[in-house]
């Protein structure tokens, strides 16, 4: 099943017949495995990676470092749950190192993200501090390079 997951992670548009040929399995076997992986919450969804800079959509993404006080018997989970329930939060990760959570937030403007941090995130009980880092340009995400440069194999002439 791990092989199937690796193929789907790279291209979730492949249909069961294509997957069966690639993995040398029957179509029914592939359908059964996918159903099992979806039911066990191993496969959580299917997404399309979009380069939003090629569209007219205006948005800002920020990575926010959050230091929190873990709650007795609950650790970081309860505070993290309060944070990731906000619709602006696109991802939330427990980290090692100098801060506890990385929160990925998306908004229409920097001001909107800043207001979210100051009015919603920072006041949560247990949040000690935040540090916001705005993404200026995406070069690569989920293994995909956004702007592939043409290689120039021509030799320079020295005169």
Commentary on this structure:
By secondary structure, the protein is of the alpha+beta class. It folds into 2 domains: 2-39; 55-136, Alpha-Beta Plaits (2-Layer Sandwich). Helix content is 31%, strand content 21%. It has 5 helices and 6 strands; from the N terminus they run H-H-H-E-H-E-E-H-E-E-E. It has a 4-stranded antiparallel beta sheet with strand order 2-3-1-4. Strands 5-6 form a two-stranded antiparallel ribbon. Helix 2 crosses helix 3. The radius of gyration is 21 Å and the shape is flat. The termini are far apart. The model has no long low-confidence stretch (mean pLDDT 91).
Which structural class do you get from the secondary structure elements?
A: alpha+beta
Radius of gyration: 21 Å
- Report the total helices: 5
Placed side by side, the strands forming the largest sheet appear as 2-3-1-4
CATH architecture of the largest domain: 2-Layer Sandwich
Q: Outline the low-pLDDT stretches.
A: none
Q: Any idea of the CATH class of the largest domain?
A: Alpha Beta
Number of domains: 2
In total, the number of strands is: 6
- Terminal Cα separation, in Å? 60 Å
Mean pLDDT over all positions: 91
User: Could you give the order of the helices and strands?
Assistant: HHHEHEEHEEE
**Strand share of the residues?**
15-25%
What fraction, in percent, of the residue positions are helical?
25-40%
So, the CATH homologous superfamily of the largest domain?
A: Lrp/AsnC effector binding domain/regulation of amino acid metabolism (RAM) domain
How would you characterize the largest beta sheet?
Answer: 4 strands, antiparallel
CATH topology of the largest domain: Alpha-Beta Plaits
The shape is flat
